[in-house]
Design brief:
Layout (H helix, E strand, L loop, with lengths): L2 H31 L15 H10 L6 E6 L5 H14 L1 E2 L4 E2 L11 E6 L2 H16 L6 E4 L8 E4 L5 E6 L14 E5 L4 H8 L8 E6 L6 H7 L12 E6 L11 H9 L3 H7 L17 H4 E2 L9 E7 L6 E8 L5 E9 L3 H15 L2 E7 L13 H10 L6 E2 L4 H12 L8 E4 L3 H9 L2 E2 L2 E2 L5 H10 L10 H10 L8
Parallel strand pairs: 1-9, 1-10, 4-7, 4-8, 8-9, 11-17, 12-15, 14-17, 15-16
Antiparallel strand pairs: 2-3, 5-6, 6-7, 12-13, 13-14, 18-19
Length: 488
C-alpha cells in the first residue's frame, strides 16, 4: 500500500470517527430533549419500587384514588408528572403502553394539577418538572395566569390540557371545572379537595396524591382509609407508603440520605425521612396495611379450626370475634359480632354463627371480668356458659396479658421473614376500624375503641396450631357437611 492510499484510508477513518461522534452527540441531545421516552432505558434507572407500584396500579381502572406518601425526596412530584403527561397523551411514552382504555370518551383530556404556593412550590418545583419531562419534539402552547407564567398547557396534537392551580387559592375559584384527572402535589386543604372532586363525576375521572403527610390528617381518615357505606374498605383506593431510602439508587445515594438524617432531630426523622406524620406516631400497629391484610370473603373450609373470643361490657356493645387457623397456621378473622345483649344473647349468637357456617370450633374464651361477683350465680359469664354447654361448647377464661398480646399481634402482621400471617375478611368492619385507629395513650394502649383488639390478642395468645380432623370428625363432616365438634 503506497503512501497516498494510506493517507486516504486514514482520512476516511477520521471521517467515520467524526460521524460517529456527531451521531452520538445527536442521540445524547435527543435523549436530553425527549427524556420521557427513555425513562426506563439504561443508564436511566426507571421508577423506584414505590413509583413502580403506582404505575402498575394506574393500569387497573378499578382504582379511582391513588396515592404515594412518605418521606422527602421519594420521587413524588416525578410520579405526578409522569402520570399526568401520560394521561394527557394516552400512553406511557417510554414503553408504548396504551392508556386510552382508561378514559373511554374521545374528547380531549382535561387535567388539573394542584400545587402549593405559586412561587415557592409551583414556579420552583412543579413547572420545572413538567418542562423537564415534556418532549421538545411535541408542540405545546403555554399561558400564565397573571401571577406566574406557564400555568396552562395545551397539547397541540391531542388538544388536551393541564391547568395548574394552587392550594392557597379561594376554594370557590376551583369550582365549576370538569375533567379526567386531578394531581395533588403535597396535602391540600379539605375545602380545596371537595371543590375539585366534584369535577371528576361527569367524566368518571381519577385522582392521584403525592405527599409527605406532615399535616392535614383528614387525608388519612377520609381518603387513605376511606370506607364504603356498608363500612368495608373502599376497593377503589390504592395507596403506597414509602421512605426516603426507597429512592436510593434512583437519584439519591445512601450516604446522602444518612448525612441529611444526621442533621435532623428524632421527631424530624420520623416525618422527613420515613414520612410518618405526628398524628400517626401513636398508632399501635403501624405494620397494618389494607392491601396486605384485608381479603375478600370466601367460604371457610370445614377443617379450619375456629377460636372464639368474647369481650363483655355492662353498657357498651358486646364484642365477639371468630378467628380461623388454616393448615399453614395463618390466622384469619372470619366473623365478628358487635351489638347490645346479655349473656344469654351472646351464647345464642355464637351458637347461631357456628351453626350457620359449620365452624370447627377449637376454643371459646371470655373476658374474666364477665364473672363479676363470685357470689352471684347468674353472672354474664354463667349465662354464656349455660347456653354454650347445652350445645357441647365449653367456655374458658381469657388471659389479661395485654403487653405480650400486642407483641403477638405485631409479629403476625409482619413476621421476621417480612411475611404476614394475619388476615381479615373485608366485611369485618368493626375489627378493621379498631386496628387502624388504636393508639398509645402515653405509655399505655388507649382504653377505648379496643374491644376487638382485646379479643384478638387474647386469641393469638392461645397459640392455636392447625391439626387434621380425626377419623370420627372427618366422617361426620363428610356425611353432614358439618363438624362433629359441639354436635354440629
Amino acid at each position: 500500500m503506497d503512501k497516498k492510499t494510506r493517507l486516504q484510508k486514514l482520512q476516511r477513518l477520521k471521517e467515520i470517527k467524526r460521524e460517529k461522534i456527531v451521531q452520538i452527540r445527536k442521540q445524547k441531545e435527543y435523549r436530553e430533549a425527549n427524556r420521557i421516552e427513555f425513562f426506563s432505558t439504561p443508564p436511566n434507572p426507571g421508577p423506584n419500587p414505590k413509583q413502580a407500584k403506582i404505575l402498575e396500579a394506574w393500569l387497573n381502572p378499578k382504582y379511582k384514588t391513588l396515592g404515594l406518601s412518605g418521606g422527602e425526596r421519594l420521587g413524588k412530584t416525578l410520579i405526578l408528572t409522569l402520570i399526568g403527561l401520560s394521561t394527557l397523551w394516552g400512553e406511557f411514552l417510554w414503553d408504548g403502553t396504551d392508556l386510552s382504555y382508561l378514559i373511554p370518551h374521545t374528547k380531549p383530556r382535561k387535567i388539573r394539577y394542584i400545587g402549593q404556593g405559586w412561587h415557592d412550590h409551583i414556579a420552583a418545583v412543579v413547572i420545572p418538572e413538567l418542562e423537564k419531562w415534556w418532549p421538545q419534539n411535541r408542540p405545546v402552547e403555554k399561558h400564565g395566569n397573571g401571577i406566574i407564567k406557564d400555568t396552562f398547557w395545551w397539547d397541540e396534537k391531542t388538544k388536551s390540557t393541564i391547568e395548574i392551580m394552587s392550594n392557597s387559592q379561594d376554594p370557590r375559584v376551583h369550582r365549576g371545572w370538569k375533567g379526567d384527572l386531578i394531581l395533588y402535589d403535597e396535602p391540600c386543604r379539605r375545602e380545596i379537595y371537595t371543590s375539585n372532586a366534584r369535577g371528576l363525576v361527569d367524566r368518571k375521572g381519577r385522582e392521584l396524591f403525592a405527599a409527605t403527610l406532615l399535616n392535614e390528617p383528614w387525608i388519612d381518615r377520609e381518603i387513605v382509609k376511606r370506607r364504603l357505606d356498608n363500612g368495608r374498605p373502599d376497593p377503589s383506593v390504592f395507596w403506597v407508603q414509602g421512605t426516603m431510602y426507597d429512592n436510593v439508587g434512583f437519584g439519591l445515594t445512601k450516604k446522602g440520605v444518612e448525612e441529611y438524617r444526621s442533621k435532623l432531630k428524632d421527631s424530624e426523622q420520623k416525618s422527613r425521612i420515613y414520612g410518618i406524620p405526628e398524628y400517626m406516631e401513636g398508632l399501635i400497629f403501624p405494620e397494618w396495611d389494607r392491601k396486605i391484610h384485608v381479603r375478600e370473603r370466601f367460604q371457610v373450609p370445614l377443617d379450619w379450626l375456629i377460636d372464639i373470643a368474647i369481650d363483655c361490657h355492662p353498657r357498651e356493645n358486646q364484642a365477639i370475634l371468630f378467628t380461623a387457623v388454616d393448615p399453614m397456621n395463618q390466622k384469619w378473622i372470619v366473623n365478628e359480632i358487635f351489638d347490645h345483649g346479655d349473656g344469654t344473647w351472646i351464647g345464642e349468637n355464637i351458637v347461631r354463627c357456628v351453626n350457620q357456617n359449620s365452624y370447627r370450633v377449637n376454643r371459646i374464651i371470655c373476658d374474666p371480668l364477665a364473672k363479676g361477683d363470685k357470689n352471684n350465680p347468674n353472672t354474664t359469664y354463667d349465662k354464656i356458659a349455660r347456653v354454650l354447654m347445652a350445645h357441647g361448647l365449653p367456655l374458658e377464661t381469657a388471659t389479661k396479658d395485654k403487653s405480650s398480646g400486642i407483641k403477638e399481634i405485631t409479629t403476625h402482621l409482619m413476621g421476621p421473614n417480612k411475611q404476614p400471617s394475619l388476615f381479615v375478611f373485608d366485611d369485618c368492619v368493626r375489627f378493621i376500624w379498631e386496628i387502624e385507629g388504636w393508639m398509645w395513650d402515653e405509655a399505655k394502649p388507649a382504653d377505648k375503641d379496643d374491644h376487638m383488639m382485646e379479643n384478638l390478642y387474647r386469641t393469638l395468645m392461645l397459640g392455636t396450631k392447625y391439626r387434621e380432623m380425626e377419623d370420627e370428625e372427618y366422617n361426620e363432616t363428610q356425611r353432614t357437611g358439618r363438624s362433629s365438634v359441639g354436635g354440629y
